[in-house]
Amino acid sequence: xxxxxxxxxxxxxxxxxxxxxxxxxxxxxxxxxxxxxxxxxxxxxxxxxxxxxxxxxxxxxxxxxxxxxxxxxxxxxxxxxxxxxxxxxxxxxxxxxxxxxxxxxxxxxxxxxxxxxxxxxxxxxxxxxxxxxxxxxxxxxxxxxxxxxxxxxxxxxxxxxxxxxxxxxxxxxxxxxxxxxxxxxxxxxxxxxxxxxxxxxxxxxxxxxxxxxxxxxxxxxxxxxxxxxxxxxxxxxxxxxxxxxxxxxxxxxxxxxxxxxxxxxxxxxxxxxxxxxxxxxxxxxxxxxxxxxxxxxxxxxxxxxxxxxxxxxxxxxxxxxxxxxxxxxxxxxxxxxxxxxxxxxxxxxxxxxx
Length: 354
Ligand SMILES: C[S@@+](CC[C@H](N)C(=O)[O-])C[C@H]1O[C@@H](n2cnc3c(N)ncnc32)[C@H](O)[C@@H]1O
What we know:
Bound molecules: S-adenosylmethionine
Radius of gyration: 22 Å
Structural class: alpha/beta
Domain Ribosomal RNA large subunit methyltransferase M THUMP-like: 84-161
Catalytic activity: cytidine(2498) in 23S rRNA + S-adenosyl-L-methionine = 2'-O-methylcytidine(2498) in 23S rRNA + S-adenosyl-L-homocysteine + H(+)
GO molecular function: methyltransferase activity
Shape: elongated
Strand order of the largest sheet: 2-3-1-4-7-6-5
Oligomer: single chain
Number of domains: 2
Subcellular location: Cytoplasm
Protein name: Ribosomal RNA large subunit methyltransferase M
């Protein structure tokens, strides 16, 4: 029985399950999700293999907010501890020829304990797969990646992922180094957001030296640090104290004001970023106001999600933003992701083209 395996942050399985269920229903590929609390993944089964495959092929991964990565699993395997490779080679379903191999596991304590096993097992398995022509001898990123997702040393799902419709990072996690000069760890959230929500071409086009930016809820300055590092000039709005090191760059103006009332003094603000801890609907309305008024071109912001039904909340907020911009006849793009560095929140990118 084939299924779609989706990786998510531990504790967000029900949101990830609600999201894939929603999209599957929209595409009329009906099925059901299996999700164990705190397991770090969700299994989604349609009622036929053809539908599971069609769902995997037709849904754009970028539409999924809570999934870090996903793949089409052809079989769930119980491996012989003494000959795992032989158990894998008994696969009955037809795998496409793959150009790379990914051995992965859930982002949980139990999952992380499988890391050294996966590292050790990877090389002998790769050799055997090349010998049996399941895998190309030379890595080929244009071909699907063969996926093994382990929940123990003897249990895994085996399948493949489309390298153009998923997350290429190991376990779907982009590892970033914390810059020692940054004043807070949340700097990694904005760094990751630029890396994940924009592609390289967009980063080159949208993040340009000398741009003006506004950071709402800026203190102590982790997000401002990312903007300053990209040679931008930043208006930092917050009643709290900003890190001295940032003020010394001469690129930051600190305004002790309410982020919901602040209006930009200049007409050439490119970026609005916002990390204020507030109700997500209130933050969304504020972002809509900025984009609709042309006070900024691009917005990157967090929606804090302390509630239970996080998928519903995000869905409502994104709809509010998209419909609000559409009603004004504004061409726009809105993308959202639950990033690795996000906890009880998701990050949204929005852009209006005029
Ligand atoms: C999560 S922290 C921001 C951390 C910051 N992004 C960083 O990387 O250092 C949230 C900040 O929002 C500020 N804040 C909350 N409500 C605000 C408001 N209405 N106006 C301005 N700042 C606000 C708080 O003072 C706090 O410093």
